[in-house]
Specification:
With 182 residues, the protein is α+β, with helices and mostly antiparallel strands. It is 37% helix and 22% strand.
Length: 182
């Protein structure tokens, strides 16, 4: 499925370097709360909606007279990011959201934020981790270990990190897992 832009919003918002700003914590908290609410309200006012389970790319762009360095830019966007996540009704650390940060030079009095949300469609099923976790699928893990690590190739050096004593220890673990005698 091709990409489609769901929404692009630009609104006035002064993002400051939170790491370098020395101020009382209540002022910082008030500013963060206002930025979060502003971002959510601007996104809600468009009427757009991203269905649950869709993969989303969010581009956050700061437009200001002077640039911030990379880590300060990301930290300055934290409240805006939380507001966009509130609009998406997801955690901002969800695997279905990818965040990108940018900045553009604006006029001497320009302080704006541009949010672009790109819907990439339904989430693809995640590939299985291999070998599987022994707690999830013990029999499959045992079969994998026997086939790959306890084979003649492994003992001859096909797997350089596996030594003979490791193979013996793995056989003992497998025997105990199957309920066999020590």
């Amino acid at each position: 499925m091709g990409e489609r832009i769901v929404i692009r919003v630009t609104f006035p918002c002064r993002l400051v370097s939170e790491a370098n700003t020395r101020e009382h914590w209540t002022r910082r908290a008030r500013r963060a709360r206002q930025q979060r609410v502003d971002a959510k309200i601007r996104m809600l006012s468009t009427g757009a909606h991203v269905p649950d389970g869709h993969v989303v790319v969010v581009n956050l762009t700061r437009i200001a007279p002077r640039p911030l360095d990379g880590d300060n830019l990301q930290r300055a966007f934290k409240a805006v990011r939380d507001g966009v996540a509130d609009w998406l009704e997801r955690d901002d650390g969800a695997a279905t959201i990818t965040w990108h940060y940018a900045q553009e030079r604006g006029g001497t009095r320009a302080h704006e934020v541009r949010i672009t949300v790109i819907d990439r469609g339904p989430e693809e099923p995640a590939a299985e981790a291999w070998p599987p976790s022994p707690l999830e699928d013990l029999q499959t893990a045992i079969a994998w270990v026997e086939a790959h690590l306890l084979s003649d190739d492994a003992r001859r050096g096909g797997y350089p990190m596996v030594r003979a004593r490791d193979c013996k220890a793995l056989r003992t673990i497998i025997r105990h897992a199957r309920g066999g005698a020590a």
